[in-house]
From TrEMBL:
Gene3D superfamilies: HIT-like. Its cofactor is Zn(2+). Pfam families: GalP_UDP_tr_C (PF02744), GalP_UDP_transf (PF01087). Belongs to the galactose-1-phosphate uridylyltransferase type 1 family. This is Galactose-1-phosphate uridylyltransferase. GO terms for molecular function: UDP-glucose:hexose-1-phosphate uridylyltransferase activity. Residues 247-338 form the Galactose-1-phosphate uridyl transferase C-terminal domain. It catalyses: alpha-D-galactose 1-phosphate + UDP-alpha-D-glucose = alpha-D-glucose 1-phosphate + UDP-alpha-D-galactose. PANTHER family: GALACTOSE-1-PHOSPHATE URIDYLYLTRANSFERASE. The gene is galT. Keywords: Carbohydrate metabolism, Galactose metabolism, Metal-binding, Nucleotidyltransferase, Transferase, Zinc.
């Protein structure tokens, strides 16, 4: 099988496109060792029209943009297994996905960004992209812009419960291919400035669906976190992330080290549990990773997540965030980084963002990073795939 799909490197992983009843895009990614047939059912539901694209409002005190997406208020909250909206459809459960699947990606019904895009030519229109970035970075009073972009749901499994870490190595690789595919495809949409795949896991994080899944946001601006990184690179030099990785690879906070990836607890960790997983080669995003890097990532990432769950008797809540370079600028300076954070500071204790962190952004660490690294190393050593 020869792929013409963007971002896909493993020729054994089939990509099958479909459309949901209200016009949203649905894409199936079949495992390399799938037992599923090629045919997929048609979504025959009668659905209301999609909500209008939300509005962004700017906070002039910070320059940050806040998307006001009122349609999200009505999303499903902790449904039982027989009403899981991410499970394959049955006669009694008219869910979002018509067929049994391995991995499925579809447009969110109530997105924070999109479905509308600006009316310019696309990624080749460098002048429009540059002008759009300058516009969103300007600061003024009561500024409003459409929340252009795209929000997608990535289902890791048809099962009702689980997470990325509970998947097989084969399935993990399929999800990685899906992330790369969607990063490439979303980066090509007009108006998109940054693509962010992530997974929220656990009720303590605020998860409303126990189904194993993540999301991808395609933003119409460069996010505040990345803007701060760009400012740090300006202050230090373009080699900041390369020098940081070199220092960490020789330090005491390394958790896992492969041929292509290293996981470590950062020197100035904010959260009780914080891990960075970084490729040794400079790549700006998942779409730029090669075959060997993706193959190793599937195993390294599973070991890391399963190690987190061995710290305590119950699964660890976390946010897993793929920080990728902006679509249109600084791609030779910003390196792909997976950041895992958890508020869990003990078996039955959570870190809550109180006055200093929430109001001032001035963090106070509860656990020395070196001590947490030692505990995580011990937990990961017992993981077998």
């Amino acid at each position: 099988m020869h792929h013409t799909e963007p971002g896909i490197l493993d020729p054994r992983i089939a990509v099958r496109r479909s459309t949901l009843a209200d016009g949203r895009e649905l894409i199936y990614f079949d495992d390399a060792d799938t037992a599923l047939p090629a045919e997929r059912a048609i979504d025959a539901r009668a659905l209301d029209p999609r909500p209008a694209t939300a509005e962004m409002r700017q906070d002039p005190l910070t320059g940050d943009w806040i998307s006001v997406a009122a349609a999200r208020q009505n999303r499903v909250f902790l449904p039982p297994a027989d009403a899981d909206p991410l499970a394959p459809q049955t006669e009694t459960n008219p869910s979002e996905i018509p067929s049994l699947y391995d991995v499925a990606v579809f447009e969110n019904r109530s997105p924070s960004f999109g479905p509308d895009l600006p009316g310019w030519a696309g990624p080749a229109d460098a002048a429009a992209a540059s002008a759009a970035l300058a516009d969103v970075r300007a600061v003024g009073l009561e500024r409003r812009l459409p929340s252009h972009g795209r929000c997608e749901v990535v289902c890791f499994s048809p099962e009702h419960e689980g997470s990325f870490g509970t998947q097989t190595v084969s399935r993990a690789r399929t999800v990685i291919e899906a992330w790369a595919h969607r990063t490439a495809a979303l980066s090509a949409l007009p108006g998109v400035q940054q693509v962010f795949p992530f997974e929220n896991r656990g009720r303590d994080i605020g998860v409303t669906l126990p189904h194993p899944h993540g999301q991808i946001y395609a933003y119409p601006y460069v996010t505040p976190r990345t803007e701060r990184l760009l400012a740090a690179i300006d202050a230090y030099g373009p080699g900041l992330q390369a020098d940081l990785l070199a220092r960490e690879r020789n330090g005491e906070r390394v958790l896992l080290a492969g041929e292509h990836w290293t996981a470590y607890v950062p020197f100035a960790a904010r959260w009780p549990i914080e891990v960075h997983l970084v490729p040794h080669r400079h790549v700006p995003d998942l779409a730029a990773t090669d075959e060997a890097e993706r193959a190793e990532l599937a195993r390294v990432y599973l070991r890391l997540l399963r190690g987190l769950d061995r710290l305590y008797d119950t699964p660890t809540p976390y946010i897993a965030a793929w920080h990728q370079a902006p679509v249109h600028e600084r791609r030779d300076e910003v390196r792909l980084t997976m950041q895992i954070t958890s508020p869990r500071r003990g078996a039955d204790r959570l870190k809550y963002l109180a006055g200093s962190e929430a109001a001032m952004g001035a963090w106070i660490g509860d656990v020395p990073p070196e001590a947490q690294a030692a505990a995580l190393r011990d937990a990961i050593e017992g993981v077998e795939l």
